[in-house]
Amino acid sequence: MRTYQLLITVLIVILAVSCQDQEKGKDMAKNEKIELEDKTWKEGIVSEEYIYKTAPYLSAHAATIEETTSGDLIAAWFGGTHERNPDVGIWVSKRTDNGWTEGVEVANGVINDTLRYPSWNPVLYQVPDGDLLLFYKVGPHPSSWWGMLKRSSDGGETWSEAEELPEGYLGPIKNKPVLAKNGKLILPSSVEGNGWNLKMESTSDFGKTWYTTDTIPNGKKDIQAIQPSILVHEDGKLQAIGRTKNRALFTTWSEDNGESWSEVDLLSVPNNNSGTDAVTMKNGKHALIYNHVLPDGDNYKGKRSPLNLAISEDGINWEAALVLEDSKISQYSYPAIIQGSDGMLHAVYTWRRQRIKYVKIDPKKLVTFPIENGQWPGPVAERYKIGVSDWMILKRQKLSAFELAQEIGADGIELDMGSLGNRDTFESKLSDPEEREKFLNTSDSTGVEIAAIAMSGFYAQSFAERPTVKQMVGDCMETMKNMNVPVAYLPLGVTNNLNKHPELRPEIVKRLRWAAEQVNDIDGVIAIETSLKASEEKKLLEEIGNHNIKVSFNFAKAVENGWDISEELKTLGRDNIAQIHASTTDGEWLENNNQLDIPKIKETLDNMYWKGWLIVERSRDTSMVHNVKANYGANVKYLKKIFQGNDAE
Fold it and tell me: Would you say the pTM of this structure is higher than 0.90?
């Protein structure tokens, strides 16, 4: 009888383990279902949306997300003129059946009638069957800020008065707290100023009393680490991972519910000195959201795109799952991620420093491939791409522009809207759906992308004075939308030279503000080319006051005026440059122009962490000015050699 009972018990255990394995298998799609070359890197994304598209401030950053006791999603972020500006406050929005509610400022750094400090890095945490906590920081700088806390008993509808945390306590510095098995809430924290150092704060009564560890040893490699996320392993261990100045994510472990932590070490996952987040899922696996970017050379900073999701069973070996963003416009960064009661992963992140974006992910539909030696599997988009202007290769709005660009070796074309003359709008084939489809199909078949939609007619026509500008810009926006092209090129040409015609500035600013609102609706940007020096161009952008207007930088302008191109680029700044016209007036090829130091320009752009399109417009050899293939082939080849390391014939 005992033998029979023992056999039954063993059988039950085997069946239970088998069922658990089957359930785990269901929690993640198997790689056999899809080949690496067929992967879109979007498998598993259920929905994605902006929490808002317009706001009463220019800049937003550092979002956090949580699920309330009623099951609602709530997000918070900081928003204001720009990071560190005193007008930056903490804004909150909730997800309803009708989408995200309008953001409301719920906290700020107002000290008195004459003194206000910026607010930073909100972190939401829902106490089980209790208050919703909002941690944030106030102060002039991360090295001198202090921790603050607000509470809500109604799921974020109303908030308590702000509480300043005890001296020396900052609260969770960027990422969500984790409730340990012993009932303590662990607040992953860090300090800046005298180097970067990790520490863990905790509270056993959700913010009435506090405890902190010593700073966690930086290890033999003197790892400079901040902004930890905490993972919970099935064996009871805790792991913290996050941002460093050491070109890779850090890791540290605790075996006593966060009371003490091992020396900091590095994972084989790259980090670009940008914030990350991670969460342990109900199936025991871990999800990491981050920029998979290894900085160039010995730099520890890198561009903040693409934005990726990876999965791991042990917190050490990671598999690539998603590419959430990979645009050459601005940055996609500082993510936060949770798993909701619905089993879905819910993530928010900074979108171009203009908006906060939300993505819902089904972990059961993720398809993963190993990250080996820190390399993201599959093709990786070039940081720099080289294009040509279709009108300058004598193929304005012609399908043959793609074949010629392919023969030249270009990655893409800047596709023009057509000529203007005395018409009300551009003479464009692209308003015809059938014609657009031909262009898109030819782009696909040749592999030559559409880098931007150009309104080159404004080289000669006046953007400030033409009465039908709204129709013209509207037609361009419609083309961008229908062809999925995010950049419009708008030259403020000879008739709108602001050095010679400063009286036109108010009308140009007014019209660009209007245009910025239109392009906002399609998530695009307008890249303007002006006659101004970079310092004055930056002032113009500030006067326009909308990040959807950026600069198309032109080498020719700098060379003609004797300006240092690298200094001009640095003055403008990474996030103000949408594209670059990488050529001068005609005379000689780029490689032969001793007024240009292209390797130095690349080094400058590398150090700025910029990525994007370089468009060849001119730089033709005047002894053979009509030889399109020779002129543009030589310039494209040279730029590819410098910017892509391509020496192929």
Answer: no
Is residue 353 a contact partner of residue 60, using CB atoms and an 8 Å limit? Answer: yes
Whether the link from the prior residue into 188 is cis, omega within 30° of 0, is: no
- With 0-12 CB in 10 A as exposed, 13-18 as middle and 19+ as buried, what is 324? buried
User: How many CA atoms, within 13 angstroms, populate the side-chain half-sphere of residue 311?
Assistant: 23
Classify the C-alpha dihedral 362-363-364-369 as positive or negative.
Answer: positive
Q: Return the H-helix or E-strand segment holding 14.
A: helix 2-26
Residue 191, class by beta-carbon neighbours within 10 Å (0-12 exposed, 13-18 middle, 19+ buried)?
middle
Burial label, 361 (beta-carbon count in 10 A; 0-12, 13-18, 19+): buried
Q: Please state, in angstroms and rounded to a whole number, the distance separating the CA atoms of residues 560 and 566.
A: 15
Distance between CA atoms of 403 and 441, rounded to whole angstroms? Answer: 12
The whole-angstrom separation of Cα 505 and Cα 509 is 6
| DSSP H or E run through 565 | helix 565-572
Q: Quick: pLDDT tens for 165-215.
A: 999 999 999 999 999 999 999 999 999 989 999 999 999 999 999 999 999
Report the distance separating Cα 395 and Cα 542, nearest Å: 36
| Strand (E) or helix (H) holding 537 | helix 534-544
- Bridge partners, residue 538, by sequence: none
In this structure, are residues 148 and 173 in contact, taking their beta carbons and an 8 Å threshold? no
Q: Is the dihedral of CA 362, 363, 365, 369 positive or negative?
A: positive
Length, in residues, of the chain = 649
Which tens digit of pLDDT belongs to each residue from 270-303?
999 999 999 999 999 999 999 999 998 889 999 9
Q: Where is average pLDDT lowest: 30-39, 234-243, 369-378?
A: 30-39
Type of residue found at 619? S
Contact at 8 Å (CB) between 304 and 332? yes
143-179 per-position pLDDT tens digit:
999 999 999 999 999 999 999 999 999 999 999 999 9
Pairing verdict, β 99-100 and 104-107? unpaired
Cβ burial, residue 506 (10 Å; 0-12/13-18/19+): exposed
Where do we find the tokens 């994605």?
48
What is the Cα–Cα distance from 484 to 449, expressed in whole angstroms? 11
Q: Give 171-223 as a DSSP string.
A: --SSS--EE-TTSPEEEEEEE-SSS-EEEEEEESSSSSS-EEPPPPP-TTTT-
**From CA 286, how far away is CA 643, in angstroms rounded?**
36
Percent of the chain predicted with pLDDT > 90: 90
Cα–Cα distance measured from residue 624 to residue 92, given in angstroms and rounded to the nearest whole number: 61
**pLDDT for res 647:** 61
